[in-house]
Write a structure and sequence with these properties.
The structure is a homodimer of 221-residue chains. Chain A is an alpha+beta fold. Chain A folds into 2 domains: 2-135, Sandwich (Jelly Rolls), CATH 2.60.120; 139-217, Arc Repressor Mutant, subunit A. The first copy, chain A, is built from 6 helices and 11 strands. The first copy, chain A, has helices at residues 101-110, 112-138, 141-156, 168-175, 179-191, 211-217, and strands spanning 25-29, 34-36, 44-50, 53-58, 64-70, 75-76, 87-90, 94-100, 161-163, 195-198, 205-208. In chain A, helix 3 (141-156) packs across helix 6 (211-217). The first copy, chain A, starts with 24 loop residues before the first strand and ends with a helix. Chain A binds a DNA duplex (30 and 30 nucleotides) through residues 140-141, 167-169, 177-181, 183-184, 186-187, 200-202, 204.
Chain lengths: 221, 221
DNA sequence: CGGGGGCTTGAGGCCACTCAACGATAGTGG
DNA sequence: CCACTATCGTTGAGTGGCCTCAAGCCCCCG
């Protein structure tokens, strides 16, 4: 919850955890539902309670670029500007906690820790975007998919076994590929022994078998 | 300067302009000189007084992705984290104004406007990065170059006539293309009548002749 | 004057794209 | 219960856009 789930209030591990003073709202979205649209005024900050969210931009001819996936615990919508630059949609059925921006800013005036938290949230988004620039601009398909799998594993549970909430189409639009290329890259990685693909359409399960091999494709220095 | 160049202190137009209280340093860099390296501790915030700066990431095999160009007046290095995520280099001979991060943070504690400025600077970087994601992931070569020219025109003087400080190679690494493709795209745009290329190697001058045509290639909705 | 850096253009190849077909599963309504 | 449809994933065939390699030009500088 934006709230006191945690005993550790050190601002790094759980930013905005100590905001009991602000009113919290909870809201549920069906799979595919829009949470906010590009250019809408940014009224709330959100935290994922259950489910997953994608934020994206569109070109006028329909090409889509997903900027980020937000998983359980993630905070998003912190556009430090008046209006959103992305559209946000529920990837699966999703519950969010939301908090009024304005209220948060008022609180931040009196609370230096909260201010720092807000800056940290912004900085984290920036870091992610910057890493993604390198991926989109300079990595080939196999490298993109390998990087994606390592990112998701780390963010879901780091066990190497994951059931992805998003479709191949979503992954493709996140990585700047076609969905067919995502498929082919996964099969290739599977054939290389780096991972195993099990489950059917509704339960896409991926298990990382050889993390080392994936890391060798994820060659940031 | 980070200083009082401006009479308008409204935080939107000239963030961090009112920091007379903080000590300012001035430093010059030769063309190609490194300003800071990836993973170095982030000690300063910078503002371009004259010249231009590129910030980039490298893959271990040498592929480079330029994240942003910083022109006169731009503020950069505001990694709200301990260390830099990019390397910064002077594109041409450059003079920077710098200010200690730590000092700035101390001042920000007492000054809500300054805090807001810092958030705004971070937000602006984020916005730029997010726009660039769309470009890198979903635009073709001609669209990338058209978008680039419109961005540069707007940031330099909006007159349609500009002398770019960066090389074709820099542009390529910014747009996720090869330098040859950048060349070919420029020639194509020139042949289409959208712009004119004049000057020699040392004075790369580009004049936009048909802004409408460029905009139709820059099809964000 | 020779060398190096930057820009342009051409030739050819490859990677990722499009188009297409097919299998599997879930949901819907007769 | 069973077509019927829609959605998602996988795989193949063929194409095309961008990359690589290469050559040549111009300008500056030692």
């Amino acid at each position: 919850m934006f709230t006191r789930t945690t005993t550790n209030l050190s601002s790094n591990s759980e930013p905005l955890a100590n905001c009991g003073a602000a009113r919290l709202y909870e809201f549920s979205y069906r799979k595919g539902a829009e949470i906010y649209g590009e250019k809408e005024p940014a009224e709330y900050i959100y935290r994922v309670k259950t489910g997953a969210v994608r934020t994206y931009k569109l070109l006028s001819d329909g090409r889509r670029q997903i900027g980020a996936f937000h998983l359980v615990g993630d905070i998003f919508g912190s556009t430090s500007g008046d209006s959103h630059r992305f559209t946000a949609e529920a990837v699966v059925d999703t519950t969010l906690l939301l908090m009024k921006r304005q209220r948060l800013e008022v609180l931040a005036k009196a609370d230096a820790t909260l201010t720092r938290d807000l800056l940290n949230v912004a900085a984290k988004s920036l870091r992610h975007a910057e890493d993604h620039l390198l991926l989109l601009g300079r990595k080939d398909a196999l490298e993109k998919v390998a990087t994606f799998l390592l990112e998701m594993d780390e963010r879901i549970n780091s066990t190497g076994a994951m059931t992805l909430p998003m479709t191949r189409h979503d992954i493709a639009d996140y990585l700047g590929l076609s969905l067919e290329t995502v498929c082919r890259s996964l099969t290739r990685l599977s054939r290389m022994g780096a991972l195993s693909l099990t489950g059917d359409t509704t339960q896409r399960k991926i298990t990382i078998l050889d993390r080392k091999q994936l890391r060798s494709l994820d060659l940031e220095r």
